From TrEMBL:
<dbReference type="Pfam" id="PF01081">
    <property type="entry name" value="Aldolase"/>
</dbReference>
<dbReference type="GO" id="GO:0008675">
    <property type="term" value="F:2-dehydro-3-deoxy-phosphogluconate aldolase activity"/>
</dbReference>
<comment type="subunit">
    <text>Homotrimer.</text>
</comment>
<keyword id="KW-0119">Carbohydrate metabolism</keyword>
<comment type="pathway">
    <text>Carbohydrate acid metabolism; 2-dehydro-3-deoxy-D-gluconate degradation; D-glyceraldehyde 3-phosphate and pyruvate from 2-dehydro-3-deoxy-D-gluconate: step 2/2.</text>
</comment>
<dbReference type="InterPro" id="IPR000887">
    <property type="entry name" value="Aldlse_KDPG_KHG"/>
</dbReference>
<dbReference type="InterPro" id="IPR013785">
    <property type="entry name" value="Aldolase_TIM"/>
</dbReference>
<comment type="similarity">
    <text>Belongs to the KHG/KDPG aldolase family.</text>
</comment>
<keyword id="KW-0704">Schiff base</keyword>
<dbReference type="InterPro" id="IPR031337">
    <property type="entry name" value="KDPG/KHG_AS_1"/>
</dbReference>
<dbReference type="InterPro" id="IPR031338">
    <property type="entry name" value="KDPG/KHG_AS_2"/>
</dbReference>
<protein>
    <recommendedName>
        <fullName>2-dehydro-3-deoxy-phosphogluconate aldolase</fullName>
        <ecNumber>4.1.2.14</ecNumber>
    </recommendedName>
</protein>
<keyword id="KW-0456">Lyase</keyword>
Length: 211
């Protein structure tokens, strides 16, 4: 079955930046999500890079209904299922494997998988995936590389992440094949650990106004 684009497209077009979140302590999840929502970024990606990730997703799903919580760094089918059980509304992966395609098959929770090379994009298209993450964006060749993919892959739309920040997000957002960007800059680690939610809301507000 093809990608659940009906569920994914509104998320990718609803805000210019999807915050990529790494949380070491689940107690920070709810105030962080509220700060991002207050700044105008309701869709947030909590990455499964820490032990606190699934509990953080669960808390945001339960306690911050105005947020749209997603799970990132999903590497296999088990993690896809765990994220959905925790309440993730969308799932992001740096790549795409047959196991992930199977896990996402028929799920109401859409999968945004990553692809960088032409062969990876063609394989994703064969699996019915045309909305893709482009990771790691800056390191893989940046906006110039991504722009050059728009001719052969006219129907593919990307969310570049990795090295994207307030300084270069507009270069990506100006591309015809980019719907949104992702990045961790809106939730800096020091602001999270010190509970500086006002600073995060302000950063989110700036990111939400990018065009
Ligand atoms: C991701 O998983 O999308 C990236 O790690 C985010 O990259 P950044 O920290 O450079 O924004």
């Amino acid at each position: 079955m093809p990608q659940n684009t009906d569920a994914l497209l509104p998320i990718m077009t609803g805000q210019p930046v999807i915050p990529v979140i790494v949380l070491d302590d689940a107690k920070d999840a709810v105030p962080l999500a509220k700060a991002l929502v207050a700044g105008g970024l309701p869709a947030i990606e909590i990455t499964l890079r820490t032990d606190a990730a699934l509990e953080s997703i669960r808390r945001v799903a339960d306690e911050v209904p105005e947020a749209l919580v997603g799970a990132g760094t999903i590497l296999n089918g088990t993690q896809f299922d765990q994220a959905v059980d925790a309440g993730a509304k969308f799932v992001v992966s740096p790549g795409l494997t047959p196991e992930l395609v199977d896990a996402a098959e028929g799920s109401p929770v859409p999968l945004l998988p990553g692809a960088v090379t032409s062969s990876e994009i063609m394989a994703a298209l064969e699996d019915g995936y045309s909305l893709l993450k482009f990771f790691p964006a800056e390191q893989a060749g940046g906006a110039a590389y991504l722009k050059s993919l728009s001719s052969p892959f006219g129907g593919v739309r990307f969310c570049p992440t990795g090295g994207v920040s307030a300084k270069n997000a507009d270069e990506y957002l100006a591309l015809p094949n980019v719907l949104c960007v992702g990045g961790s800059w809106v939730a800096p680690k020091d602001a999270v650990t010190s509970g500086d939610w006002d600073r995060i809301a302000a950063l989110a507000g700036e990111a939400a106004s990018l065009k």
